Amino acid sequence: MHEGIKRNGITVLLLMPIVFIYCLHFFQHDESLKPTGFITAEHATYMVYAKQYSTGEASLFFRYPFQPDAASPRIFFQPQTLLLGYLWKWTNFSPGLLLTLFGILFAFLAIRTAYDIIQIVCRKYSGVMTLLFIWGGGVMTFVGAAFHLLTRGSGVDVWSDIFKFDPGFGWWCLYFGRALIYPLEAYYHFIFLLAILFVLKNKYQLAALCVVVLTFSHSYTSVELALLLLVWILLEKFYFTSEIRIHAGLNLLLASCIFTFIFYAILTVIVNSGPY
Q1: Which of 47, 83, 196, 231 is 20–30 Å from 202 (CA)?
Q2: Which pLDDT tens digit goes with each residue over 68-101?
Q3: pTM of the model
Q4: What are the sequence ranges of the domains in the chain?
């Protein structure tokens, strides 16, 4: 029990920069402005999808809402969109606040899962390694800092130079902690890491479930996970030939990875065949 409290405490501390950013958004702003909870325009589009569930227009599948034809078919499904839509309907929260709370919850879960993985891989230095993994800054940050030290005469402040080589002044979120600022990115990263955690614990059936959930949630992240696991499975089966290769759950995990590729191949054909 004490260990669980410690892990949750460390997770909360690592979560604080994300909470701080949203506190600035909601409480530190011009009096003439009203905070929405949407820190980028893209986040508002996610809730436009979810609105179809909150209004009763959709029950399971939703349509692409930006088509000029209001009668376009409902062929899309995402677990997170369905969850957000029905939470919006049941709680009547403002969509921006709901998305913010959703993001903070999954950021917490993603950080906690990352910590659990690092505890398995390197228990002795797990706290420090988790801190570096979440908020380490990445190579581009160090390159930017070095650039500032070498070109101090330019008169540019250190923060500008730190993000000089980081696309979008850092808002492409190319290291882990910054990605968790975005609610759906926090959700995707949590499912991804949860699958890895289940693999490390030899719980391959649960890892397969994560692959399927992520497949319905996000194309790029699910394909990345499926490719990573597929390479590992093939190595275990045909190169290392360890006892893991005969584990019944491993074949189910393999099938879930193959399902990911088939699903997006079929979905691509469907989308390209009509105005969706």
Answers
A1: 83
A2: 666 677 878 899 999 999 999 999 899 999 999 9
A3: 0.87
A4: 1-136, 138-174, 202-276
